[in-house]
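Worked Example 4.2. Consider the chain below.
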Amino acid sequence: MDQRLKAKLQQQRYHLVGEHGGVKVCHWTKESLLRDRSCYKGKFYGVKSHNCLQMSPVVDQCNLACTYCWREPHMDTLGLKDQDPLDMLYESVRAQRRLLSGFGGNDKVNKEKFLDAQNPKHVAISLNGEPTLYRRLGEYIDECHKHGMTTMLVTNGTLPKVLERLDPLPTQLYVSIDAPNKEVFDRICRPKWNNGVWEKLEKTIDLLPSLDTRIVARHTLIKGENMFGYEKEYARLDERANPDWIEAKGYVHVGNSQNNLDITNMPYHDEIIQFSSKLAELTGLKILDDSKPSRVALIGKKKVPLPIPEIVKEFPKDLGIAPPIKHLPLL
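Applying the procedure from the previous section yields the following structure tokens:
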């Protein structure tokens, strides 16, 4: 990993795992522990925010340089030293426990909930970078499932062959379809190499109906860039993808994205609902729920809680901080 990027990530309280992986405590994990507030994944899919591990096997590399990405810029070259999947899982859980350790002495934090948070039940593979660049991703997902953890993989969808071969598939697969056509895609997603990236995303879109897992099409809405006026084009892409759900999520003017976009590019929540209503009408679906704090609406037919795998492997006792306890039920 580039040493300057490594220093920036550590300064931002990433806990680096191996050569390319990383863990960072999600804002909503902290909110859940301190104020009993859950992120939209709780409302939409029954995920307990304090039980969620936010990580990526590739925090330093991506084949896109999206204008709306609020994470740090990535390396300009691709090349990974693939870490052992089981080692990555255990080190990620160890890192999560270390990052949460300070909450144990906070009087505002429920002690049972804090102990429960030591053993994540959900892994959001979405922290930074493009996780499908990790060649042993299927093995990592398999280890998560064996340890009784759901997996939520977020990908930019530009590596369709990886998704086609991925075994097992994640519990829930998010594909970022953040542009309605190639012209907009090239402008806001900015592929680093001109090798038919939009066409590869289209291949992923057409692949999705054949994948036997829960599918979410994610549209990041940037006012003035990819939002109003493009509803019909998004609807055509969504009909090809045939996802279980569509998430229409508003761009937020934070982090590195401030170098590329203006605060006026942030849509109001009412505008997100307006866009979602039109998209739902065009796709024959409906708005199932929304979350104003997270600036997102859920479009689909019905809500279905995330299924949790049966535990067949326990975490080692030497991961530190707190012993395992019985997990709290889903919402």
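Residues 322-331 have pLDDT under 50 and may be disordered. Residues 41 and 47 are 6 Å apart (CA to CA). Compare this with Example 4.1 before moving on.
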